[in-house]
Design a protein that fits this description.
The chain is an alpha+beta fold. The chain has 36 helices and 32 strands.
């Protein structure tokens, strides 16, 4: 979330307190890790007890010595995760009480205010740890940590409050739960996106092998997360390749024919299972009932629906709980997609990336359809216990009027700052300013939280902020309140404001006064320094403590502001919560940043036993800040101290391969000149695989922390580390064609060159890697150092982003930012808002990507492009992109080494894209997701264009 001192100041995160808390938790986690082996003492079993502790003691009967050995062997695999003590899990679940029981050996718990799921693992956990510790994606369930106690493993996962998908999609479910078609398609898109990440972007690619309705979990916003990775396995090679197995495991009905008949394992296994899952979601029946009485291949069930008169039988096939509440053309398209996934020949099934594209195109229409079709009984309004709940907050504040802030979640009908401001009668420029200067017309992702400043004042007994609304067709009070205004008011409050004689009903074109819920601080709150109360709509699964922590607010003050206590803190979804904030949010930010800095310094000293001093020079050097970033290290540590340092550091890095220095000497022939690449970088060979070994001179904690959490084809992979004589050595995967900077500049001494198609492929690879960092890692990350030297090329000229020493997490949505006074990076690549105000957001990478793409198109480095230019870099493109016939002058601007061997229309489109990336107003730049979409549309044409030509030295 964003915060502000006033509407003219920049907003920054409300949640820095949570970040500081995260640092504290990490410190405690490391201490727990070292104490854990001493805690693994066998406990006496009570045969009569019914809790999980008793269930877990009989599972493993191996000797204690063997259990300890297994634990130590697994340490290298799990230590990058949080390691919990069994006592912590007992506290989180009230000793695994029945109140916390979900099912089987699965319990819900609360750790530091966050809801988690704790599961006792009865089987071999090595595969699941191996997979979950290598992946990081929003649509895959996150393994937060583990506990090993008395030979039994316990896994701690993030909590998905709406449970498994199977509880929501079948007609015969006992609770009568159901999902709209829009939500079903959103879930399908989430599952497809997660599988596409596994198939295409993990290194190596992975197959889930167990996709089914019980293994897809729904969070409080009904977004899907794939779970259960026990059967998952890596697949070497390209998507089309496969392996064979004699060990057939899985769930009947979801298993592809080629797997059942011949043991063929490929990504098409997941595609088939996804088709079955989606078929269940559309039909409202599980696969067993779909198969009932059918002796043919499952896909043939769809034949009657997809025949020429298919639309006539569509209603009979679709889930009856939907009634006719769905667009038939989209439903029909979805069944055609299912049919393609269920083809018996795996070669005729679509890839997951194709499925994602199809679902993405239909998703917006489906969500809009679903948002306008709800009703609420005859009266349209629910009953409330008291007037305050129904009508607003009492006017008991120190002021009758004050500034207030509401949180509105973007939705398809209101997905821009302009439309949201218009709906809530707010000033669009003020809304833009406090939301990271997002362009008022930029489309926002669904559920992006937008902070809206309004004036709150007394109207009789209750506070309210006023707006108006014209009723549309098929709307009632409930629809207007819930769908349009997202429960920021109540339908009773709207109803009582109506001045016409017919108060009970609303009709199209009625103009309503909408009283938005708000409040001003009380005298007690005012004296405590609180100046604003933020109105936040509670979502399913929220808790007051977690909401308060997220905003950096005091839990006690938040409870008091809402008439709650620790004993009575129950809150209901779709009601509002007041979150108190201090007068000057910036003060809290500085304090929080200072705390994080101190905590980080203490932690680093504990881990490495040395202080790293960085020179904070605001003057940007021409080439790079790398020299400023080299730390001054103390090298007088004793061998014993160094050994201790290494052991203390193991909890952070042990999920990586830990090499001995002898391993590295053997790999590089004792770091001989024949293996030298440049600087302190050497090429080596470990077990037949080419690697890059780099001696690290500065603080390595940030880079380890980032690289140990990410896994993506377009990000360079850290294979392992070595710690010797106080020095760290990193072992990376080898990119055979070196840095991009060696291939794109006209003055390259080796005359290396890339074709047009190869340049577009590299640009797409870099954009895809950045989009993963910005949108799909948890938390989102900003690279902060994108430049041509930090993009490496494989032997197939695919781009991989390297150098994560400056990368940092950015909590919250894409539009949010944080502030820093420590400006580091390379001149020319640094965005204006970062240089001038220290603003750090994903738009920093978007700007740098624009510079990089400009270099790739022109064949000139950024220093040359700046030469003689005293204006903003984007103005270099002004004359070209603003001309009516800019394409005709393209040749003078493009890299001369390309000649005319490029599609002029696409080249011009790329320059327009660069122009957008380089806009001085960060709110007007595209997101990386939008950039990926633009590049993907032109990539095929560019590759076909370039296929008839070879690139300089690239063909060798």
């Amino acid at each position: 979330m964003l915060s502000s001192g006033n509407s003219k100041k920049k907003w920054v995160y409300f949640g820095l307190g949570a970040v500081a808390g995260g640092v504290f938790i990490l410190v405690v986690g490391l201490m727990t890790f070292f104490m854990l082996p001493r805690m693994c003492m066998r406990k006496k079993i009570d045969p009569n007890t019914q809790n999980l502790e008793a269930q877990g003691k009989d599972v493993v009967k191996q000797a204690p010595e063997k259990e300890s050995l297994e634990f130590l062997e697994n340490i290298s695999r799990i230590a990058s995760l949080k390691v919990y003590s069994f006592t912590e899990l007992q506290a989180a679940t009230e000793n695994f009480s029945s109140d916390h029981w979900i099912k089987g050996s699965v319990y819900r718990g609360n750790i530091s205010g966050d809801e988690v799921v704790i599961k006792k693992m009865d089987v071999d956990v090595s595969k699941e740890i191996s997979v979950l510790n290598k992946i990081n994606h929003f649509n895959l369930i996150r393994l937060l940590g583990v506990c090993f106690d008395d030979g039994v493993w316990y896994f701690v996962y993030e909590y998905a409050s709406n449970g498994p998908l199977r509880d929501w999609i079948f007609q015969d479910n006992p609770d009568g739960k159901t999902l709209s078609l829009g939500k079903r398609i959103q879930v399908a898109c989430d599952v497809a996106t997660g599988l596409n990440y596994l198939h295409t972007y993990t290194n190596p690619p992975h197959i889930h092998k167990d996709i089914r309705s019980s293994n897809v979990l729904l969070n409080n916003e009904f977004r899907a997360k794939i779970a259960k990775f026990g059967l998952s396995r890596p697949i070497k090679g390209n998507d089309g390749q496969f392996t064979l197995t004699n060990h057939i495991v899985g769930t009947k009905g979801y298993l592809a024919p080629e797997y059942l008949e011949n043991g063929v394992v490929s990504p098409m296994l997941d595609v088939y299972a996804f088709g079955v899952l989606f078929l269940e979601m559309l039909a409202g029946r599980d696969v067993a009932s779909l198969y009932e009485g059918v002796k043919v291949h499952l896909s043939e069930i769809l034949s009657p629906v997809l025949s020429e008169d298919g639309n006539l039988s569509l209603k009979e096939f679709m889930d009856s709980s939907l009634g006719e509440d769905y667009p038939t053309d989209i439903a029909y398209t979805m069944l055609v997609l299912v049919d393609s996934c269920l083809r018996k020949d795996p070669g005729k099934r679509p890839f997951m990336d194709e499925i994602v594209q199809i679902l993405s195109k239909t998703l917006t229409t489906s969500l809009i359809w679903g948002s306008t079709q709800q009703s609420y009984g005859d009266s349209n309004c629910p009953a409330y216990n008291n007037a305050s709940t129904a009508l607003g907050y009492d006017c008991n504040g120190v002021n009758r009027t004050c500034q207030t802030f509401l949180i509105y979640r973007a939705q398809p009908a209101y997905n821009t700052i302009s439309s949201i401001a218009s709906l809530l009668s707010a000033n669009a420029s003020e809304v833009s300013a406090i939301n990271s200067n997002i362009s008022v017309s930029k489309a926002l992702a669904t559920d992006t939280e937008v902070i809206v400043p309004l004036t709150c004042s007394c109207a009789g007994r209750f506070y309210q902020a006023n707006t108006s609304y014209v009723v549309q067709t098929n709307e009632n009070y409930y629809v207007i309140n819930t769908n349009k205004f997202e429960s920021l008011t109540t339908c009773n409050a709207i109803q009582i404001q109506k001045t016409s004689p017919n108060v009970i009903n609303v009709f199209p074109d009625d103009k309503l006064n909408i009283p938005l819920r708000c409040a001003c601080p009380t005298r007690k709150q005012f004296d405590a320094g609180i100046r604003h109360l933020i109105t936040y709509v509670i979502q399913s699964g929220n808790a007051i403590a977690s909401i308060a922590h997220r905003f950096g607010a005091d839990v006690g003050q938040t409870l008091e502001a809402n008439g709650k206590s620790e004993q009575n803190s129950v809150i209901q979804p779709n009601t509002t919560l007041l979150v108190p904030k201090w007068a000057y949010f910036g003060v809290g930010i500085v304090v929080g940043a200072a705390f994080i800095s101190v905590a980080g310094t203490i932690l680093f000293c504990m881990l490495l036993g040395k202080l790293t001093k960085k020179k904070n020079d605001p003057i940007v050097s021409l080439r790079s800040f790398e020299a400023q970033e080299k730390a001054v290290t103390e090298k007088s540590l004793e061998t014993e101290t160094e050994s201790l340092v290494f052991l203390e550091s193991i909890s952070k890095i042990a999920s990586l391969k830990v090499y001995s220095f002898k391993d590295l000497q053997a790999a590089t022939e004792n770091f001989s000149a024949d293996h030298w690449i440049k600087g302190s970088v050497y090429k080596g060979n470990v077990n037949g695989d080419e690697v890059v070994i780099k001696k690290m001179d500065g603080d390595v904690s940030k880079e380890i922390n980032v690289l140990n959490k990410i896994n993506h084809l377009n990000l360079i992979r850290l294979l392992g580390v070595c710690f010797q004589d106080g020095i760290w050595y990193f072992v990376y995967e080898y990119a055979g064609n070196g840095p991009l900077s060696d291939w794109i500049y006209q003055d390259s001494p080796d005359k290396k060159n890339l074709s047009w198609g190869q340049r577009m492929q590299v640009a797409f690879d870099v954009a895809t890697g950045l989009n993963y960092l910005h949108r799909y890692t948890s938390p989102p990350h900003v690279h902060k150092d994108i430049k041509s030297r930090n993009v490496l090329l494989t032997d197939k000229f695919r781009g991989k982003i390297a150098k994560f020493g400056l990368a940092r997490p950015v909590m919250g949505n894409d539009g949010q930012f944080t502030l820093t006074k420590h400006i580091v990076g390379t001149k020319g690549y640094l965005a204006p808002e970062y240089l001038e105000n220290g603003i750090v957001s994903p738009m920093l990478d978007v700007y740098a990507f624009g510079v990089l793409l400009l270099e790739m198109l022109t064949g000139k480095d950024v220093a040359f492009l700046y030469e003689g230019v005293k204006v903003h870099l984007s103005e270099v493109l002004g004359p070209l992109v603003k001309e009516e016939d800019g394409i005709s002058n393209l040749k003078d601007f493009m890299d001369t080494s390309l000649g005319e061997d490029y599609p002029a229309d696409i080249a011009y489109t790329m320059l327009v894209l660069v122009d957008h990336c380089l806009r001085k107003d960060q709110g007007k730049r595209p997101s990386m997701d939008e950039i990926v979409q633009i590049l993907s549309k032109t990539l095929t044409t560019s590759l076909i264009w370039g296929s008839s030509t070879s690139a300089g030295n690239s063909s060798s």
